[in-house]
Amino acid sequence: MVKTAVFTANIIGFKLLEKLHAFNFYPQIVTYDTAFRRTNQSKDFSFFEDKFKIIYLQNNTYEHNKNILDRLDCDNVVCIDWTKDFFKKSRPEFNVIQMQPSLLPKYRGYGCISEQFEKGVYQSGVTFYKPSDKVDAGDIIYQKTLRIEYDDYPEDFIENIVNISAEFIINVEKNGLKNYKTLPQNEDEAFYIIRKRSKNAILDFGRDAYSIYNQIRAFSRPFFGAYFYSNGTKVKVFRAKTEKWQGYFGEPGEIIKNDENGAEIACGSGTITLSEVEINNQTYYNYIPL
Questions:
Q1: What is residue 61's three-state secondary structure?
Q2: Which residues pair with 265 in a beta bridge?
Q3: Is 38 helix (H, G, I), strand (E, B) or coil?
Q4: What's the confidence (pLDDT) of residue 70?
Q5: Which helix H or strand E contains 276, and what residues bound it?
Q6: pLDDT at 2 over 80
Q7: How do beta strands 271-279 and 76-80 pair?
Q8: What span, in angstroms and rounded, lies between the C-alpha atoms of 45 and 56?
Q9: pLDDT number for residue 38
Q10: pTM reported for the whole predicted model
């Protein structure tokens, strides 16, 4: 049987290990020491140490971890939510397979989940590919299309990513790569995105309700949340719905109604109802104290 290791981190990696455990499948795991990678996406994998053999790294390049990683007993490494240029300067003896949560060559780069939700993309997918000198530009090994429904959020999309990734990893362990035919990416269709920052999550109620809804979805959990300020207090928004699609219903940002169904706010066109927000680290559902 082919031996496979998984390089993964963060929330997606944590959920992936949960899924692999549900399948009673325990490949070698490589992740970052939580003391090295401290972001809002970081997760502590020690919970899985009695189930998986886990190697912790304290640097994000292969060269700095070569002595540790050269001892890996594997034929293939599958990288899920892993540093894209980790192997940039080196090609180890094992095969490296990377994953991008988009239909490459579209949406190359970091932050593509948020980007697709903000753009209102409804047909996305997962791509497994070989590394190359350019980020996310290697030959495609396997792709699977995913539909993003109107009421989906990143958490729903990530759940689908994890399911597909787990199935792919198990198949690679059983059969290697012999059943996959690699295809080069079409560079004419390729484009890169700019990594999202906090400033990209500021809500402008002067925009139309649909655009605001997509922006809220884009930065919803597990990300840091779209936000605005009310009376000088930061309000993070994690769930909402378009109440009225278009038309004038009040000055942008005006609270039209605030009850057990949420706070309905006028937009440049249409209205949007906020149903889950965070204020001063306190989460509020439905009735919003604005």
A1: coil
A2: 255, 272
A3: coil
A4: 85
A5: strand 271-279
A6: no
A7: unpaired
A8: 9
A9: 61
A10: 0.94
